[in-house]
Design brief:
By secondary structure, the chain is mainly α. Helices cover 70% and strands 0% of the residues. The chain has ten helices and no strands.
C-alpha cells in the first residue's frame, strides 16, 4: 500500500518513513471515531496530570528530563504552559498580572507615575466619564494581561541565562526552565486564589486590604524562593551558596517585574487604545 501522507510504498501497519497509520474505510466509522476521541482525551489527561504532579512535587525535574531527552511521559513545555494559562484565566478570581483602573489612580507606586493626571487627560480627550472609561479600561486590561503574559518566558529565559551563563547551557535550555517556572507561578496563583484569597475576602467582607496584600505578597515570595532553591539545584547543579543567592534574588524581584509589567499595560491601553 502507499502511505497517504508521504507516498511511501510499504506493508506495515505504520509507515516506517513518517509514522502514518495504515488507512482503511473502517477508520471512518462512528465507533472508531468515538474510541479514538476517548483514547486521545484519556492520554491527554494522563500526560497533563502527570506533568502537573512532577512540576509541583519535583522542582526542576521536568526541565532536566526535557533537556536530557526524556520527553515521552510529559507534555512539552510550551503546550503545557498554554493549557495552564487557559485554565488560569478561565478559573482564576484575581489576576496578579492585571489591575483595575481604580488601583492605578489610588495606590502607590502607581500614582508616582502621575497616573491620576494621565487618566484625567484621557477622559477629556475621549469625552467620557470616569465610570464609562473605567469599564472600558478594565476590559482591555483583562484581555491584554492574557495576551502578553508569554513575555515573561523569554524575559526569565534571559535572566537565567545571565545568572548561569558559566554553565554553558544552550539558550533554549534556559527557556525551558523559565517556561516551567512561569507555569508553576500560574498554578500557584490559581491555588492561592481559592485556598487563601477567597476565604479571606469572605471572612472580612472586603475586596481589598493593604495589610493582607503585603502579607500575601511576602508569603508568595517565600514560596517562590523555596521552590526555586530546589529547582535551580536540580537543573543547574549549582553549589549551596549560589543556589540560595540566585533563587532569593529571582523570587524577591518577581513582584517588582510584575509592577513594571502592569505599568507597561497601563500606558499601552491609555496611549494606544
Amino acid at each position: 500500500m502507499d502511505c497517504k501522507s508521504c507516498g511511501n510504498d510499504h506493508l506495515e501497519n505504520f509507515c516506517p518513513e513518517c509514522g502514518e497509520k495504515a488507512f482503511n474505510t473502517k477508520l471512518l466509522s462512528a465507533k472508531h471515531f468515538a474510541e479514538e476521541t476517548f483514547e486521545g482525551l484519556v492520554h491527554f489527561d494522563n500526560k497533563f496530570f502527570r506533568t502537573v504532579k512532577t512540576l509541583i512535587t519535583m522542582p526542576g525535574q521536568l526541565s532536566l528530563d526535557y533537556t536530557e531527552g526524556r520527553r515521552v511521559r510529559y507534555m512539552k513545555p510550551i503546550p503545557f504552559f498554554l493549557v495552564v494559562s487557559l485554565l488560569f484565566f478561565f478559573l482564576t478570581i484575581g489576576n496578579i498580572f492585571s489591575l483595575a483602573l481604580y488601583n492605578y489612580v489610588t495606590y502607590k507606586p502607581f500614582t508616582n507615575y502621575n497616573t491620576q493626571g494621565i487618566v484625567k487627560d484621557k477622559l477629556v480627550q475621549a469625552k467620557l466619564s470616569m465610570t464609562e472609561y473605567e469599564q472600558l479600561f478594565n476590559e482591555k486590561m483583562t484581555a491584554n494581561s492574557k495576551e502578553f503574559i508569554f513575555i515573561f518566558i523569554p524575559f526569565y529565559g534571559l535572566v537565567f541565562f545571565l545568572l548561569f551563563f558559566w554553565k554553558k547551557h544552550f539558550f533554549v535550555e534556559h527557556l525551558v526552565f523559565a517556561t516551567h517556572f512561569i507555569t508553576f507561578i500560574l498554578l500557584f496563583s490559581l491555588a492561592g486564589a481559592y485556598l487563601i484569597g477567597i476565604p479571606f475576602y469572605l471572612i472580612n467582607k472586603t475586596q481589598y486590604s493593604e495589610h493582607f496584600d503585603q502579607f500575601y505578597s511576602l508569603f508568595t515570595v517565600i514560596c517562590f524562593g523555596i521552590y526555586l532553591i530546589f529547582a535551580v539545584h536540580k537543573f543547574y547543579r549549582t553549589n549551596f551558596f549560589w543556589t540560595i543567592l540566585t533563587s532569593a534574588s529571582v523570587a524577591y524581584t518577581f513582584f517588582l517585574f510584575i509592577q513594571y509589567y502592569r505599568m507597561l499595560l497601563f500606558f499601552k491601553i491609555i496611549w494606544l487604545s
